[in-house]
Each structure stands twice: as structure tokens, then as C-alpha cells.
Amino acid sequence: MSNTDQDSWSRVKEHLRTEVGDDVYSSWFARMDLEAIEEGAVRLSVPTRFLKSWIQSHYAERVLACWQAQEDKVTRVELIVRSAVLKSAVVPKPKPDLAAENGGRYTNGIGRALSVGDPSVHEALGGSPLDPRLTFDTFVVGRSNTLAQAAAKQVAGAKRGDPVMFNPLYIHSGVGLGKTHLLQAVTWAGNAAGERKVLYLTAEKFMYGFVSALRTQTALAFKEALRGIGVLVIDDLQFLQGKSTQAEFCHTLNALIDAGRQVVIASDRPPSDLESLDDRVRSRLAGGLVVEMGALGEELRLEILKARVTAARAHHPAFDVPLPVLGYIAKTVTHNGRDLEGALNRLLAHNKLTGHAVTLEMAEREVRDLIRPQEPKRVKIEDIQRVVARQYNVSRSDLLSSRRTANVVRPRQVAMYLAKTLTLRSLPEIGRRFGGRDHTTVLHAVRKIEGLVGNDMALAEEIEILKRQLQE
Ligand code: ADP
Ligand code: MG
Questions:
Q1: pLDDT higher than 60, residue 266
Q2: Is ligand 1 within 6 A of the CB of residue 335?
Q3: Which ligand has the nearest atom to the CA of 304?
Q4: Concatenated DSSP letters for 293-334?
Q5: Residue 189: Cβ within 10 Å count
Q6: Residues 6 or more apart from 126 whose CB is under 8 A from it?
Q7: Which of 253, 361, 389, 408 is 20 to 30 A (C-alpha) from 120?
């Protein structure tokens, strides 16, 4: 091959790079070499069959045009795969410890079956790490996620050769509403059934695995491993970036769906809002079953919390969260499932580290910053005592004292009544906060005031004013 041929080839590559951009260029063309130019035919080589077919179907005309811009005698571009013998000689042997290391953490054994030694490829094929807690058993079904859960179960339970009911299954929702949980549940259940291999990949893993597979010249192995998969699960599709990655995603998606394999996808938005994807992919995504999961309702939040406590008790038998505390968290903490978990984790940590029992008071303090901002201000017992004392012109220590003179007894009863009606504290707790009184004393005070406000208009009005002051 002459030097002028090599010069032309350099200019063609530069031309290609400016046309397709660095990103695409380095994914598809960086490993392309010029083999020969003979009578108007240019022969180029790439390291894998996959690259060859991809370039042929997507960039053949582009490449030819770039050549013709340099050499008008060129009429044809041929693509060949460089010697596989040479290539296999440089592929390192799989490291034996890798399989053992990954065996416990990753989805399945695909990585182990491959004779590819590169750890990144290995890992990419083995799937993203799975959380053993995210199964169907721990997924609580409520109004907002019934359909998504049913569809996910159907996918997980389908047998090889069963007709595919909807493909892809596309689940979307806001953050923390259970998408990852459902997808991992599908993966666990599907792989446990052993019918079809289920591979769970985050979009990042998909990008990373694919790009690194290209770099290590094992795109073919990657593709072949993908072909062995019955169900491909891709989480957080909104993070898929880069034109070439998206092209590859599109290719994989089409190949799998056309071959009757199941694809399951989660994203934080519907397919129509995936702006960076091209129209064909979007319509392909929208062509299966698209299910939205709504916000977790209060009931569902409570059920999730109960399930979490039960699960936590398996490891921490002494961890006991009274129902009113769970009710309080379900009511006040945001709709996000992650915050619910965070709230319980704090209670657990507090309980373990200090040995103090979980109480409403503790819960209120620990989860304060997780409370929905639009929630009306939570009233504190100290505030009640302060406001009541000021109103009746007594001191706060009078309210807490054991003095029984009329001018402190009534204000004390009013304060206890307000504590009961404006906070979620239990009677014993209120008693404790009022100078260590018994809960029956508190109950008596509450009943007393309840009885009085029915007849005493002035008192009723006083209490209304106090309430308003406290809630402002
Ligand atoms: P997403 O992927 O939608 O952002 P995740 O699946 O990561 O949300 O869920 C966040 C947290 O909430 C996880 O701990 C998950 O287990 C929990 N969670 C969400 N929905 C449910 C549910 N229906 N049942 C049990 N736990 C749930
Ligand atoms: Mg997620």
C-alpha cells in the first residue's frame, strides 16, 4: 500500500470524525483499518463481526462518500473482519477468582460461561448488583402499583416459549416509588424459576459494558451473551446517553424483541418524554405495555412500613415500633419510598445506639427533616405549655408542678387537652411531659375539658384562640 493511500485514509478518517462527531467516531470507527485499495475498491477491516454488520447497515454510504470526496476513482468499500486467530491469542485467560467473587453478587452465571477475561466485560454481562431484599415478597401492592406489579409478575413467571404478552414492559414513575424494587423482583423470581435467564442492567451498566466491550474487542462476545438472555431488564433508562450508545440500545432492543425475548424497562418518565431517543425507538418502547406507578398513598405507606419493621425484626428482635409511630410516619413523611426507609433506619439506629424505646417523641425528632413541607406545622408540647402559661398568666413550672390551686389546675388541664388534640402523643407520654403524671390524670383532664367546652362558650373560645396561636 502506498503512502498516498495511507494519507488519503487519514483524511477520510478526519472527514468521518467531523461528520459523525467524536463520540460516534470513537465507538464505531476508531478500530477500523485500511487493508488495501485495488481498482476503485477500498478494503477496510474491523475487529469484530458485530462492528462490521453495524457499520455496514448504518454507515456504509457515509464511509463511501468520505472516500469519494478524497479519491474520485473509489466506487466501492468492502468491510472485512480482521483475523480472529490473531485476536484470540491476545485475549487473556479468565481469572478464576472472578467468577467466585461475582457469583454471590450478580444476577446469573452468564459471565462465568463466557471465555472472556476482561473484568469489565465479565461484570457487564453478569448484570448489575442485586439487592436481596427487593423481591415480590417484600413488595407491597396498593392502588397505585397493582397493574405494574401484576405485569411484572406475569413476565417473571412466563415460561420459555410462552407467547410474549407485552413487549417491552415499560414502567415509569417518580423517584422512590418502587421501580427498581419491581425490576429486581422480576430478576430474582425469573432466575429462581430457572426457565429463562434474566439479566438486570442499569442503563449506566449497559453503556459501560457495551463501550468497554467495544474497546476490548469483545463486542461479539457481548452480543452473543445478550443472545443467551431470555429477559433483559434495564433500569433508569433516562440515563442512557450518547448517540452511539442509543443506537446500540435500539439495535439490542429490536434484536431481542424480534427474537421473542422479553424486555423490561424502568424510567422516570414515559417514552414520549425521552427526548434524546429517536422516534423509532420511542415508538418501539411505547408499543408494548406502558404502566405508570402513582404516588404511594398513606395506606400503602403504612403497609410498607409494617413490612419493613417485620423484616428488620428478623435481625433486630428488640426493635419494636408502636403502631401510632408508624401511623405518624406514614402520615407525615413524603410519598417517596426511600424516605420511609430512611425514617425507619433512623429509628432503628437510635434504638440500637441508645437503647431507648421507639416513641412518638423520638420519631418526631428523628424524622423532622423528612416531613412534607406542605404539612401543617407540628405542634410541640413545649409550645403548648408556653402559650397556655402566658395566656393564663402562670409560669410553665407551675403547669408541671404538683400544685393543685384552682388558678393552675384549669390551665394545666387545658394544656393537657391541647397536647392530646394537637399532637399524636399518647396519654402516658403527655403525663410524663407534665411533671411525670399518670396517664389517668391526663385522661381525666382531657375528659374534663371536653365536657366543659360543650357548655362554656367563653372557654371554648379561649381554646380556639390558643389552637390558632399554636398552629400558626
Ligand atoms: P425507584 O426505583 O422507583 O426510584 P425504588 O424501587 O428504589 O424506587 O424504591 C425506593 C424504596 O422504597 C425501596 O427501598 C423500596 O423497597 C421501597 N418501596 C417502594 N415501593 C414499595 C412497595 N410497593 N413495597 C415495598 N417497598 C417499596
Ligand atoms: Mg430506581
A1: yes
A2: no
A3: 1
A4: --PPPHHHHHHHHHHHHHHHHHH-TT----HHHHHHHHHHB-
A5: 18
A6: 102, 106, 107, 108, 109, 110, 111, 112
A7: 253
Reported residue count of the chain is 472
pLDDT digits (tens, 9 = 90+) for 360-409: 988 988 888 777 655 455 688 989 999 999 999 999 999 999 999 989 99
| Nearest ligand (C-alpha, residue 171) | 1
Ligand 1 atom at minimal distance to the Cα of residue 149: 23
What is the Cα–Cα distance from 330 to 352, expressed in whole angstroms?
22
Q: By the 8 A CB rule, do 177 and 298 touch?
A: no
Instruction: Provide the pLDDT for residue 98.
Output: 34
Q: How many CB atoms within 10 Å of residue 158?
A: 19
C-alpha 255/C-alpha 6 separation (Å) is 36
Look up residue 377 and give its three cell numbers.
406545622
Q: Quick one: angle between helices 3-24 and 243-258, nearest 10? A: 80
Provide the β-strand partners of residue 181: none
> Cα dihedral sign for 389, 390, 396, 402?
negative
Question: Considering only CA atoms, which of 308, 272, 322, 270 is closest in space to residue 291?
Answer: 270
Residue 237 Cα to ligand 2 midpoint, Å, equals 10
257 close to 41: Cβ distance less than 8 angstroms: no
Nearest ligand atom owner, CA of 334: 1
Q: What are phi and psi of 295, to 5 degrees?
A: -60, 150
Could you tell me which residues come within 8 angstroms of residue 357 by beta carbon, excluding any fewer than 6 positions away? 320, 351
Residue nearest to atom 20 of ligand 1 (CA): 178
In terms of pLDDT, which residue wins out, 290 or 274? 290
Report residue 134 as a C-alpha cell. Answer: 427487593
Phi-psi region of 170 (alpha: psi -120 to 50; beta: other; left: phi over 0): beta
Going by alpha carbons, the residue nearest to atom 27 of ligand 1 is 178
**Residue 328 pLDDT more than 70?**
yes
Cβ burial of 421 (10 Å; 0-12, 13-18, 19+) is: middle
223 or 100: which leads in pLDDT: 223
334 lines ligand 1 (CB under 6 A): no
- Residue to mutate, 138, 171, 177, ligand 1, most ligand atoms under 8 Å from C-beta: 177
- The long-range contacts involving 80-87, CB below 8 angstroms and separated by at least 24 positions, are 80/35, 80/43, 80/44, 80/45, 80/46, 80/52, 81/45, 81/46, 81/47, 81/48, 81/49, 81/52, 82/33, 82/45, 82/46, 82/47, 87/47, 87/217
How many whole angstroms separate alpha carbon 33 and alpha carbon 26? 13
Q: In the predicted model, what is the mean pLDDT of residues 454-467? A: 90
